[in-house]
Amino acid sequence: MSAKQGKSLGKSCENVTERMQQLHFNEQQRNMKPGMCNKFMHAVIDPDFLQGEHGSEVLSKLNELSLKYEIKRQQFPRVVTFYRANAQTLTVQGAVTAKTSPLKFIVHLMTGQELVLHVKEGTLRSIVDRLTTLYPGTVLSLLVFGLVSYCRSNRNCVGRKETETALTEVQLFNKCSYQLLDTAEEVGNFVAQLGKSLAELPYKQQQYDKYCQEQLYLGNEKKGCVRVEGSAGLHQLYQNQLVKIPSVSLEVAEAIISVYPSLSQLMDGFRFAVDGPNLLADIPIRRAGGPVTTSIRRIGPEMSKKIYLLYSSLESSQEL
């Protein structure tokens, strides 16, 4: 083989490798999107977790979202762990490999009767400590199933204050979240929705990084979003923002925009008005986009005050 032929063959191999890498990258991006990513998420469920009426609901909800599951004995009873089965990857040498990635999230199911017993004996934190020792570095979610129904049938079994104190302690000291669930459907929904959220996590993280890098915080990838390019779309965004306020209809939003065409003008109006809370009170509302009739309908002082508080209050907990 001549040097020229060898060079040509080497370049051809490089082109094939680059093409395969690009195809693989495109496949990765497609598999990462919501809906597609679910099929790579696996829930590993302890058999004891499925004992009871909620067992069939858990499996049914996982199937509805196309999430895979395995029934396998865990290190601790009634525990669910998760892992992601990564799609086949192409190495630098051109070899195709596949691997799994365990996720640092676990779920433990506890019955209402067990919780009452742990609260009485003061052993709830020790149970959570044991779980965090067996599964180090994980985020633990504690599901308490049937506490209300158990307490109804066993009056004076434990005080509400003692129960809330014990659960608050594991939240603060063990960084453990908890959910009080009363129906089998709620248990199934929690496990399935957690699996779905974990499946979509890489995609959402990628989108977040992309927007942070580009300093772009407005997108139109979902229903109801408004594309803003330069000044185009700002009017629609402003209108949509007003309509999101409770009790503000499209007609009310259009009435406000007719007087204050932009958000900055509305903010300036509130800022420099002598009576800011009543700034919008006397603005007439056109019915269904028609002319102002003899029976004039106005925004009114209550609605005006609500919008004023929304745009002027510095209190994060301000009630409208």
Automatic annotation (TrEMBL):
It is found in: Nucleus. Residues 53-194 form the ERCC4 domain. It holds the Pfam family ERCC4. Keywords: DNA damage, DNA recombination, DNA repair, Endonuclease, Hydrolase, Magnesium, Meiosis, Metal-binding, Nuclease, Nucleus. CDD domains: XPF_nuclease_EME (cd20083). It comes from the Eukaryota. One of its GO terms (biological process) is double-strand break repair. One of its GO terms (cellular component) is nucleus. GO terms for molecular function: crossover junction DNA endonuclease activity; DNA binding; metal ion binding. Its cofactor is Mg(2+). The keyword Transit peptide does not apply. Gene3D superfamilies: Crossover junction endonuclease EME1, DNA-binding domain, ERCC4, Mus81-Eme1 complex, nuclease domain, subdomain 1, ERCC4, Mus81-Eme1 complex, nuclease domain, subdomain 2. Signal peptide: none annotated. InterPro entries: EME1/EME2_C, EME1_nucdom_sub1, Eme1_nucdom_sub2, ERCC4_domain, Mms4/EME1/EME2, XPF_nuclease_EME1_plant/arthr. Belongs to the EME1/MMS4 family. This is Crossover junction endonuclease EME1. The lineage of its organism: Eukaryota, Metazoa, Ecdysozoa, Arthropoda, Hexapoda.
